[in-house]
Amino acid sequence: MIEKSLKNHSQNIVKTNEDIKLGEFENIAGLVIRVAQLKAFDSIHNTLKKGDADGNILKVGEFTVLQIISENRGIRQGTLADYLQIKWSNMSKLIYSLEGRELLTRYIPRNNRRSVELDITDKGLALMNGFKPKILEVEKQCFSMLKDEEYKTLTSLLRKVADWPEE
Questions:
Q1: What is the pLDDT of residues 125-159, one digit of tens each?
Q2: φ/ψ of residue 113, rounded to 5
Q3: How many structural domains are present in the chain?
Q4: Domain annotation covers residue 93
Q5: CA distances to 52, 79, 121 from 84, in Å
Q6: Could you tell me the CATH number of the domain that includes residue 95?
Q7: How far is Cα 119 from Cα 31, in angstroms, rounded to an integer?
């Protein structure tokens, strides 16, 4: 039965990525964004897993969290979780892991004992500063097919979709 089915469809066998058809979903933005995101994510992931000169390795999520904290020192853990659309329980695990590696500190503010605020440590900043040029270079390579104006338009449109403020 399977053999017969394949014979009838032999002219439609997909041999390369270019042969894949999506039909009416060919230009569905969410699908295209997801595939593009996976490509970019893979490039960044491969860079981070190589580590730095001291053998320190970061995952993409860890890098993202440390980057945001480095730019928003004292950010509340819940605010960060909501911004990144990460469940609070998963964010807690991530924060504990980074704190255990002495890359960030958690503290409870005196004026609100129910919240947790985050700050990056000197060790965390040094690690981030080591990875930033590598990540920026990977980003440049990943989107090298775009002209500068196209790249700006892309990021502007993605920021709009993400409901982030314009730069």
A1: 999 999 999 999 999 999 999 999 999 999 999 99
A2: -70, -10
A3: 1
A4: yes
A5: 25, 9, 21
A6: 1.10.10.10
A7: 35
